[in-house]
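Slide 14.
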Amino acid sequence: MEPSANGRSVSYLGRCLDLVDLVSAALREGLSLSQLAEATQVPVSTVSRLARLLEQRGLASRRADKRFVPGPALVSLGLRSLRLLPTEHYREAIAALGHSSGEGVSVGLLLEDEIVLVARHESEHRLRVVAMIGDVIPPHTSAMGKAVLAHVSDDRRDAILRCALGARAATVADELAAELDVVETDGFARDEELYAVGLRCRAAPLVGADGEAYGAISIAGPSSRFSYELAEACVGELLETTRAIDGGRP
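Slide 15: predicted structure.
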């Protein structure tokens, strides 16, 4: 498989794989045939044939507006891949956080340029936050996302925001700058019902030996029960947990 001058493949199989890569990384609104053709520098007629093949295999789905999003087979492949991650490294720690706080605790890891939920301890309360393994966490509206953004390089932050927001990334980065400075200083991030109405969250980064965040742990619950005072009281243990995990990371 030889790459073309733009870094894309020229073989039929290579072009199929390029389309899978593009569709899997597409924003929520999906990609049109013309956008796929432009990104791969392949004629629309060829992209149309390849896209039909991906549809037949369940790797892509065409919505009613003709835009392409990941298909069920691609989603299934992604979820199976998540099961291969060493999440057992986090389970005992987040269970302890969950029991002490009484709220849901999540681990998100930075996979490529997305923050993906890979481990979860559910709240013991009947009223709880709904979150699922495999969820992609928005970096700009969540405490988990901001904890990560505040502890990565400028280039990495830009890439994460571009992946989530496309052309709006630079504008949102400017809007977040002051808040991320506070998060970096405090060592943790707050979310007061921005990610979801009625939800309060605190999150701290998981930081590697290079000083860069590779993920984060969050504690979240309904704001009617998980008061500001209770959330702030959880921060100490949250920070201790993330630091302990970082120190024992395999």
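Speaker note: The beta strands are 60-62, 68-70, 104-111, 114-121, 136-137, 189-192, 199-207, 213-222.
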